[in-house]
Amino acid sequence: TSTHFSAPLIVVNGPIRPRIGLNCSFGVFGPGHRANATIGRALRLVMINVGGARPGETSMSTFGHPGRYTYCIGEHEEASPWPPYHVERGLGPEDSAVTLFAGEAPHGISDHASRTARSLAGSLGWSMAGLWNAKHFPLYSHTMLVVGPEHARTFGEDGWSKEDLKRHLFETVRVPYRTLLPDADGGEGTNLRFGKGSEPGPDALIPKFPSLDDLHIVVSGGTAGRFSMAIPGWLGTRNGSTPVTVAIRNIP
């Protein structure tokens, strides 16, 4: 299996969240809530006992990450200025839904100064530029941006939609191709991402995110603190995983 350190992140939406006591607010990625802990742990136990995902045997991840114990959150829909994530994925607001996203551990982003949507979007975007590797442009894996409620409020107050934020990230986080080539100060480079003979010119601007569809935005976490989280997916190539969202049916 992969030596990468991803784990299935479970994102829950809809009215089932309060019904089962799922934490969507303060400490959402941490301990202290039975629903988050047991749902994520149940999936991991299935992966171990049914799929045989035992470290050093069939699971060859170099590091793993703490989400391999449990990795389950709810979207804080009540604190979001936008339609819930599962609605964006084609379900109704009255539906309950679960999304699985193969992701790394969350990368924290702090911005306590930006007071406009444009400024904050730039701050988030350039903080995400180093995901996988600072020269890893384009990043072909899907990326999830978990926007904290305070940051989300800034976007809402300026009238920005999720689509506006995605478009800004896509159009802004770009660097010249020449800065992405291997050199004496860094052997990693983006040149292998382009077929021989199809390399762009040295000053061509290369986007970090290949398309708007590769960006996934949810709102979660506590209502105090100007923080967000970025979660790159698996892999950094076109052969990686794709998030899956399904409705939760027949709830007793």
What does this structure look like?
Helix content is about 25%, strand content about 20%. It is α+β, with helices and mostly antiparallel strands and about 250 residues long. The protein has one domain. A four-stranded mixed β-sheet has the order 2-1-3-10. A four-stranded mixed β-sheet has the order 4-9-5-8. A two-stranded antiparallel ribbon has the order 6-7. Helix 4 crosses helix 6 (about 160-170). The radius of gyration is 19 Å and the shape is globular. About 35% of the residues are buried.
Summarize, please.
With 252 residues, the protein is of the alpha+beta class. The chain contains six helices and ten strands; from the N terminus they run βααβαββαβααβββββ.
Please describe the topology of this protein.
Layout: E1 7-13, H1 16-20, H2 34-49, E2 72-74, H3 85-88, E3 97-103, E4 107-110, H4 117-128, E5 143-147, H5 149-157, H6 162-172, E6 174-176, E7 205-207, E8 215-219, E9 227-232, E10 244-247
Parallel strand pairs: 1-2, 5-8
Antiparallel strand pairs: 1-3, 3-10, 4-9, 5-9, 6-7
